[in-house]
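can u do me a favor
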């Protein structure tokens, strides 16, 4: 059962085509759009400001999304938020990848089709142009992205959109086996490949 908490009369909204892992926590003013994926142990705290995760976006395991009073944190369509990232009162543009353990701070805006590298620290108010590669702590725009780099990012996002469907169809809480069974199946590229 997903951990969903109403706060001050405001209840999180989850589109029925989205997948939210049962260990994720949604509090208050949180809106999860169609075909979105919210991973294990993600925490989306809409207890001061609104959090919006738009269509096809993924928020991976151990991410924290939070905001200031009366702010709106948006992860736009096809946003891809890597493991352990922290987003705070910011705007993540359409088709953006935020790398593992990166931090994007208040009033920062990451332009469409950009990549924020793993462990980058995007400071308060930074405005990242579209199609930018952003690295470092504090983060700096290093260069523009090529079409090939953006296409590679889009493939990864489609894999998570496929994972949303796989999870809705087959993920179930169960008991662990006590030993590996003979002929144990393996995950294959065909199973994870987006359509």
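np, heres the sequence
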């Amino acid at each position: 059962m997903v951990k969903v908490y109403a706060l001050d009369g405001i209840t999180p909204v989850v589109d029925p085509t989205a997948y939210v892992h049962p260990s994720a926590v949604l509090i208050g003013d949180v809106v999860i759009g169609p075909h979105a994926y919210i991973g294990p142990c993600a925490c989306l705290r809409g207890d001061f400001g609104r959090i919006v995760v738009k269509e096809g976006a993924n928020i991976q395991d151990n991410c924290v999304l939070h905001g200031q009073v009366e702010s709106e944190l948006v992860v736009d369509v096809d946003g891809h938020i890597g493991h352990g990232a922290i987003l705070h009162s910011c705007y993540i543009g359409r088709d953006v990848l935020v790398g593992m353990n990166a931090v994007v701070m208040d009033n920062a805006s990451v332009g469409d089709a950009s990549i924020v590298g793993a462990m980058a620290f995007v400071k308060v108010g930074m405005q990242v142009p579209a199609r930018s590669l952003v690295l470092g702590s504090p983060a700096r725009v290093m260069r523009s992205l090529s079409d090939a780099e953006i296409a590679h990012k889009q493939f990864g996002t489609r894999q998570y959109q496929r994972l949303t469907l796989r999870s809705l169809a087959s993920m179930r809480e169960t008991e662990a086996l006590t030993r590996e069974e003979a002929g144990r199946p393996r995950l294959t590229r065909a199973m994870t490949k987006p359509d």
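Residues 147-170 form the longest helix (24 residues). hope that helps!!
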